[in-house]
């Protein structure tokens, strides 16, 4: 197993502590004490606690962007690309649930400097997804009477809310939940001519 860097250890510890006691109640002193590091080590990696909160967000949004671009490059039809991207987006709520919860609960604390960068990254992700929807409408795989931007935002909004209710100990795994989301989205936006391809990704009735 690869040994974690000090930066990774700080992020992991802060996620645990912020989740336990809240962002504002955890000091830099407490974080470094928790992992047996020095304040100098902390400030060598992060210039502030704000930057640390930004990093917690960047871990998962960068993963989503990279995986979504990989899915776009790997597959050759809008339906396959969309299904792969839906899987990526839902997986992140399983893999980084604590990171996402902390970020959504505490993001109001971030300065404009970090908020602007975060908005740009989120726009980047939505642009990839929206491109897939637009291309699907051009190929008549997706319904053209549905505004592309609204379809994109509806998908992102539906899945983003997962952080509020998903429990790894719950009755459904994230894979099963992804199947439900995928089925719902495809049945809503796929045209009749593309339904045959879409059926392979739908829940069998």
From TrEMBL:
SUPFAM superfamilies: Homeodomain-like, Tetracyclin repressor-like, C-terminal domain. Residues 27-46 bind DNA. It comes from the Bacteria. The keyword Repressor applies. Transmembrane segments: none annotated. InterPro entries: Homeodomain-like_sf (IPR009057), HTH-type_Tx_Regulator (IPR050624), HTH_TetR (IPR001647), KstR2_TetR_C (IPR041490), Tet_transcr_reg_TetR-rel_C_sf (IPR036271). Residues 4-64 form the HTH tetR-type domain. Keywords: DNA-binding, Repressor. One of its GO terms (molecular function) is DNA binding. PANTHER family: ACREF/ENVCD OPERON REPRESSOR-RELATED (PTHR43479), ACREF_ENVCD OPERON REPRESSOR-RELATED (PTHR43479:SF11). This is TetR/AcrR family transcriptional regulator. It comes from Lysinibacillus irui. The lineage of its organism: Bacteria, Bacillati, Bacillota, Bacilli, Bacillales.
């Amino acid at each position: 197993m690869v040994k974690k860097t000090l930066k990774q250890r700080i992020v992991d510890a802060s996620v645990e502590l912020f989740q336990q006691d809240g962002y504002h109640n955890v000091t830099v002193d407490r974080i470094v004490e928790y992992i047996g590091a020095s304040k100098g080590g902390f400030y060598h990696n992060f210039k502030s606690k704000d930057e640390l909160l930004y990093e917690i967000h960047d871990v998962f949004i960068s993963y989503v962007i990279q995986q979504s671009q990989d899915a776009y490059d790997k597959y050759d039809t809008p339906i396959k690309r969309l299904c792969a991207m839906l899987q990526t987006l839902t997986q992140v709520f399983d893999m980084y649930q604590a990171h996402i919860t902390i970020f959504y609960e505490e993001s109001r604390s971030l300065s404009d400097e970090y908020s602007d960068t975060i908005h740009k990254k989120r726009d980047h992700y939505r642009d990839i997804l929206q491109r897939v929807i637009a291309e699907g409408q051009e190929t008549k795989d997706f319904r053209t009477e549905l505004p592309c931007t609204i379809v994109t935002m509806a998908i992102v909004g539906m899945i983003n809310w997962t952080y509020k209710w998903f429990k790894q100990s719950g009755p459904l795994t994230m894979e099963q939940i992804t199947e439900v989301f995928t089925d719902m989205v495809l049945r809503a936006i796929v045209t009749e001519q593309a339904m045959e391809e879409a059926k392979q990704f739908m829940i069998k009735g």
